[in-house]
Design goal:
The chain is of the alpha+beta class. Helix content is 22%, strand content 36%. The protein contains five helices and eleven strands, in the order ββαβαβαββββαββαβ. The radius of gyration is 18 Å and the shape is globular.
């Protein structure tokens, strides 16, 4: 689910619930209601984006929200519910992040994409915000919502490497013995980025589907 070119957004074989989770920056379990097929039917999206410059992640998700509302005749409401979450915070000794050089390329900033190999997981980030880091972590890596509480508003370059475990990536983790050994995700965040994931509980504006219709074949 990403920009394949500067002007083409693509997603392949995703259920509506997963698309909504990405579009509204929620974990799938914070989405309820609607017919049973919102969990089972899979859809492909190939959409052209307007403008001369590649849209930011926020702009991409705004366009995805509009597309899903129109194509699925979607209506919903929000309910505040308490969930087990991770709070992304700054560690005791401060952040270890490099401020990014402003990106003026028409292609925009490169997407945040995890790279999984037999012995480690990597997240190379360029021109990324802390809210984008929290978004990609909760979407793919960890098993609960991640809320950005760093207070950092800039854009940064960083590289994160760690040894993943069965709690991450839905249990689909690489296996092997890294050389040299890599720390677990929580330790790597502190050592390499000066950040912490703190397990806590907090309110999430959950999404409840009131109506959704299968789109026509056309």
């Amino acid at each position: 689910m990403r920009m394949q070119t500067a002007h083409q957004f693509a997603a392949k074989a995703y259920a509506l619930k997963i698309l909504l989770a990405a579009a509204y920056n929620l974990p799938p379990r914070a989405i309820s209601g609607g017919p049973a097929w919102v969990d089972s039917d899979l859809y492909d999206i190939l959409a052209e984006t307007p403008g001369q410059v590649q849209p930011t992640l926020d702009e991409q998700m705004s366009m995805l929200r509009k597309l899903l509302t129109e194509r699925f005749n979607l209506t919903f409401h929000r309910e505040e519910k308490e969930f087990a979450i991770y709070a992304l915070t700054v560690a005791k000794n401060g952040p270890k992040l490099t401020e990014a050089v402003p990106n003026t390329s028409p292609e925009g900033s490169p997407p945040l994409v995890f790279v999984l190999s037999p012995d480690r997981a990597r997240l190379p980030a360029r021109d990324a915000t802390m809210s984008e880091l929290a978004w990609v972590m909760q979407r793919a890596a960890v098993d609960r919502p991640v809320v950005d509480k760093t207070g950092l508003s800039g854009r940064y370059d960083f590289d994160l490497e760690w040894t993943s475990d069965e709690r991450q990536f839905g249990g689909n983790v690489p296996t092997g013995n890294p050389e040299p050994p890599k720390p677990d995700l929580f330790t790597a965040l502190q050592q390499q980025l000066g950040l912490k994931l703190e397990a806590t509980r907090g309110p999430i504006a959950a999404l409840v589907i009131d109506q959704a219709e299968r789109p026509s074949a056309n």
